[in-house]
Amino acid sequence: MNDAVAYPKSHVPAGEDFLLLPPTAQAHAYRNVDRMFATRAIRRGTSVLQLARGREIALRYQVGEGTHDVDAYIDRANVAGLLVIKDERIVLERYSLGLEENTRWSSMSMIKSLTSTLVGAALQRGAISSLDDAVSKYIPALRGCAYDAVTVRSLLTMSSGVGWNEDYTDRNSDVNRYSKSLGDKIPGGVLALMRSLKAEHAPGRHFNYNTGDTYVLGCLISAATGKKLADFMSETIWSPLGMEFDAFYTLESDDGQEIGGSRAGIALRDFGRFGVFLLRNGMIDNTPVLPPDWIESAGRRSFAFDAETNRYGATGYGYSWWIDPDDSMVAVGFAGQSLYVNRKAGVVIVTLSCQPQPPYAAAYSVDLKAEYHAFKNAVLAELR
Question: 21-97+104-383 has which fold?
Fold first, then answer.
């Protein structure tokens, strides 16, 4: 018999099921990541970077035989948050599916691109001496395993050569073993998983999308700087730039290492402000946070793809940024998260979504990749 008093409780899904959720649970889970996993705050500062508001854009886009407007896009693509910035002015901002202005929505893998930017900050400060340094120089625990000879650059470009299965539908895949370790909050569990993996290719030669690579990258940044990853993000970008809300990294365990490659929680407008930071070439108050060529290098194709066959419609991958067919940088995350940064046009587009995933996606008739690119192109055409 249960002797516990029947106080009200709020339910969240199990952490190990995070990548396998049905559509009925996605929006609730993505708004409540900090209740499913251990987290550490990325603290904002005392002032906020104010984004002016321009005339709201009204646009129509075409996919196949149909023509649709912004509201239809939100419905068809299961969008929770949509933000468009042109020359640091907000020209579109919409919320749906329970998302509110101060809600920290799960970044999914978008955070990989933000974490990778901290490598640039660490280089600028001299904490990391070279992208060609071996990972084991900074993380002695990885000596003697497949990551020993991998360089910082290879981690940034998903070319560690370490075998990794990113199949979200397979409960026994590496990414779901990683997810279960996070849900169970096992101290040192993720690093132990990374140590157990075997090399399949020489470092730097073969692209293989690997969330574990960015976990190792986050560990490396912490080791090199002597700071918790969340604190380093706050110190270098979040606070001085003027983010509006605290964000958070998820942790591998209570008070453990941050997960640099997935699940961080960030508010919609602050994703946009990070895009503005890149439009400003990594400068805050006329002070360079990043090396002068960092953003240009980060947005250059280290590996090239066919946009037709790439699942996101990207044509390349840089320093943990996907490269759009128009050469823009895009941070992309599971289930339809994206931060698109077009430096030439001065445009930032943030899309937060809960798009259905396998096996549920099979019953969804919308071509979500085509929908996204058609909408993005219509935004650019409207803003010209």
Answer: Beta-lactamase (3.40.710)
